[in-house]
């Protein structure tokens, strides 16, 4: 009788747990979280290759477009959620570096015939600006294996400065309020269990006026919108105030 009661109790608990989708299956929310974790744990080392194969390399163009849309300036603090292998963060660092180099060239051109003193002063100003306007990208992912591979890739590609790797859940971020200028999530929001909680957390950690950029694709059901979407990439951005 006790065993039957325990079984009945477990059945009631399971029955109450909310259901969600995992691919074409309907599973419990806890099971989805476990399955998603295992999938990315198993494919971490092959994740970038799989993206190339499944998108024929187009995902790289989408990510480049995301950075051009973001247009980060020196000093920008980025949080890239579900960013395990570092694709967005590396592009962010490259983009900011190019902005800094462009600014330096423009300042150098402002001196028609610079003396050695002018050049020395300019480089000193650049060093000061680099200190005060140093950009930073924080890569946050719930999967340790994805972050591990991302770190290895960063070392191989010589991305040593301006990056932090943090294990964290998008639905409960381990960061203070009003901390970041930009929040990105690329092809990750589909894998979370509670999208509303993810958005609430994004709002919380972004500074007033911060920017939320989500790169994602899915089948659009509305035929009118579908025709529009087929002609352009979906790249959503909201400025949070």
TrEMBL record:
Keywords from the UniProt entry: Methyltransferase, S-adenosyl-L-methionine, Transferase, Ubiquinone
Keyword field contains Lipid metabolism: no
SUPFAM superfamilies: S-adenosyl-L-methionine-dependent methyltransferases
Listed GO biological process terms: methylation
Source superkingdom: Eukaryota
Record-level Gene Ontology MF annotations: 2-methoxy-6-polyprenyl-1,4-benzoquinol methyltransferase activity
Keyword S-adenosyl-L-methionine on entry: yes
Protein function: Methyltransferase required for the conversion of 2-decaprenyl-6-methoxy-1,4-benzoquinol (DDMQH2) to 2-decaprenyl-3-methyl-6-methoxy-1,4-benzoquinol (DMQH2).
Assembly and binders: Component of a multi-subunit COQ enzyme complex, composed of at least COQ3, COQ4, COQ5, COQ6, COQ7 and COQ9. Interacts with PYURF; the interaction is direct, stabilizes COQ5 protein and associates PYURF with COQ enzyme complex.
Name of the molecule in the record: Ubiquinone biosynthesis methyltransferase COQ5, mitochondrial-like protein
